[in-house]
Amino acid sequence: MTTTTRDISDDTLAPRGRDKIDWAERAMPVLAAVRERFARERPLAGVRVAACLHVTAETAALVRTLQAGGADLRLCASNPLSTQDDVAASLALDDGIAVYARAGEDRPTYFAHLAAALAHRPQLVMDDGADLATLVHTRHAALGDAIVGGTEETTSGVTRLRAMARDGALRYPVIAVNDAATKHMFDNRHGTGQSTIDGILRATNRLLAGACFVVCGYGWCGRGLAARAAGMGARVIVTEVDPLRALEATMDGFQVLPIAHAAAVGDIFCTVTGNRDVIGGPEFAAMKDGAVIANAGHFDVEIDLAALAAAAPQQRRIRPSLDEFVRPDGRRIYLLAEGRLVNLAAAEGHPAAVMDLSFADQALAAEYVLQSGRALAPDVHTLPHALDEQVARLKLRALGVEFDVLSDAQRDYLAGWRSGT
């Protein structure tokens, strides 16, 4: 099956992409179970879907699941550096998906691809960073009335959508897939933790043992990253603005410092906050010669790239995904993946086994928001707990893990109040 409705880099890469997709799907049994049911029941039959996601082999498994459920889908990239061109080619040529994604696409192309996805007049919007939702509410307002609902995969995107809801601007209900327990407890912590270390090592080939590794932000992603850096022998420092998270990091055994103090002692820095200008001019001025900085937050705003460039008269690319900035005094600072998501731009993103959970959540959230329709208020909603539990049960079954079940007496005890002590 082929389609001419696409903008991808190289059609000839499709066979290699198919192999990558097949390999990923072998580690995604939960999504396979959802796809099998979707193929029987066709809950998305005829629904026009615009999806702005990282175009990876794992995402391909989700897209193929939505297609099995009957969706008429257009896919664009949610980050200019995360697209796997071979996967994009396979989805376009082998599955007939309208794909608009090229690795390394410039800003105008990126936004042209977003516009192409929205030109589909979607009834469902699937976001990874809320770029489609933002465009719907700014440049393409006429589409808002036709959209039944949306889903959002990331912390950064959920933050933006909640801001829209607070302002009374959000025009359709959105399921915050990121807030599902089977997403943030595993994808954010185990997925980001492992894939970020993978990206940093591929870009630098540096030894982490003995290095001072600074993790900026101790949310679920920061927790996972700090644990894995420590597991590889690094001395981990955490920076935080939330006193509860700072206390948690302290009790997890990590040193907590303001970034102004950590800047002078760190060897490797990685931001995972969802906020902007976390590392900027004063921090660059304090860093040692050879400091490495990376970002694992969704947008490339966490590192002040303009300040970094302005204070470095000499700049050059030394390795793929590694740029050297030489300050006037000769100190060198190394930026990974242009300040974009290092785990996707310099590596392959999360392992398929953890994306199995997240993308099963995405598929079920799409079905749920479409079935609920206008009954849901235009707000940010959590995935129903029953669906979260369903994904967990399917994953445990696939892993061969058995667990206990409450007896009737135990259920009655937990539901009552008369028993006392």
Description:
The chain has 17 helices and 15 strands. The chain is of the alpha/beta class and 421 residues long. The protein has two domains: 11-183 and 352-399, 3-Layer(aba) Sandwich (Rossmann fold), CATH 3.40.50; 192-345, Rossmann fold. The strands form two sheets. An eight-stranded mixed sheet has the order 9-8-7-10-11-14-13-12, with helices on one face. Strands 3-2-1-4-5-6-15 form a seven-stranded parallel sheet, sandwiched between helices. β7 (212-216), α9 and β8 form a beta-alpha-beta unit. The longest helix has 24 residues, at 181-204. InterPro entries: Adenosylhomocyst_ase-like_sf, Adenosylhomocysteinase-like, Ado_hCys_hydrolase_NAD-bd, NAD(P)-bd_dom_sf, S-Ado-L-homoCys_hydrolase_CS. Its cofactor is NAD(+). Its main location: cytoplasm. This is Adenosylhomocysteinase.
